[in-house]
UniProtKB/TrEMBL annotation:
Coiled coil residues, start to end: none
Keyword Cell inner membrane attached: no
SUPFAM superfamilies: Homeodomain-like (SSF46689), Tetracyclin repressor-like, C-terminal domain (SSF48498)
GO molecular function, one term: DNA binding
UniProt-listed Gene3D superfamilies: Tetracycline Repressor, domain 2 (1.10.357.10)
Top-level taxon in the UniProt lineage: Bacteria
DNA-binding segment(s): 37-56
All residue ranges annotated as the HTH tetR-type domain in the record: 14-74
Transmembrane segments: none
Protein name (database record): HTH tetR-type domain-containing protein
Assigned keywords, A-Z: DNA-binding, Transcription, Transcription regulation
UniProt keyword annotation of DNA-binding present: yes
Length: 201
């Protein structure tokens, strides 16, 4: 096989894998993980069931790949936000990003909400989430401390609960204005816009 053929083969393989991941995420979100079969995903993705198993040995392995892919997708925006020196601005950007992510990734929100209630059945979910929480918690606590929060540890729990509540309510109402109103309320709570404007003047 020529080098060119190797490159073309790898490109086709990546495209097929991408199609499988995107299709699986959509169907897991729409129908639920338990109600979605490998055959359904293969059919929707336009590939054979046998080819599916060249990429993933099981539906659980595919689910793990879908979640890891989404976490990786979020990494770059989060790294960019973490690099913002002004903590008022950084927290404001984080709230805006979260709202936009909820709007544009509804299937992922549905999937994570349903799986979050059954972590015992999928222990790798807890591992993925715990790893991210361990890396983000100290950073957010320090940012809350920077803006004058007296008890950043407790306040972060409140902020996380508000974000989780936003996600669940949005799945029910699908009302963009609700998300935006809650986002404004959170920014007002921490005086984020006010301090960013003061900094710019």
């Amino acid at each position: 096989m020529s080098p060119k053929s190797d490159i073309e083969f790898e490109k086709i393989r990546k495209e097929s894998k991408r199609k499988i991941l995107d299709t699986a995420l959509r169907l897991f979100g729409e129908k639920g993980f338990a109600s979605t079969s490998i055959s359904m995903i293969a059919k929707e993705a336009g590939i054979s069931k046998g080819l599916m198993y060249n990429y993933f040995d099981s539906k659980d392995e595919l689910l793990q790949a879908v979640l890891s892919d989404m976490v990786e997708h979020m990494e770059q925006p989060y790294r960019e936000m973490m690099s913002i020196e002004n903590s008022f601005e950084m927290l404001g950007k984080m709230i805006d990003f979260t709202v936009e992510f909820m709007k544009s990734h509804k299937e992922f929100n549905v999937l994570m909400t349903s799986l979050g209630l059954q972590k015992e059945s999928h222990p790798f979910i807890k591992q993925i989430v715990d790893n991210k929480i361990k890396s983000w918690v100290p950073i957010y606590q320090k940012r809350l401390e920077d803006i004058g929060v007296e008890d950043p540890e407790t306040e972060l729990l409140i902020l996380a609960a508000a974000m989780d509540g936003m996600a669940v309510q949005y799945l029910t109402t699908e009302d963009d204005s609700h998300l935006e109103n809650v986002a404004r309320a959170l920014k007002k709570r921490y005086k984020l816009d006010q301090n960013i404007k003061s900094k710019d003047q």
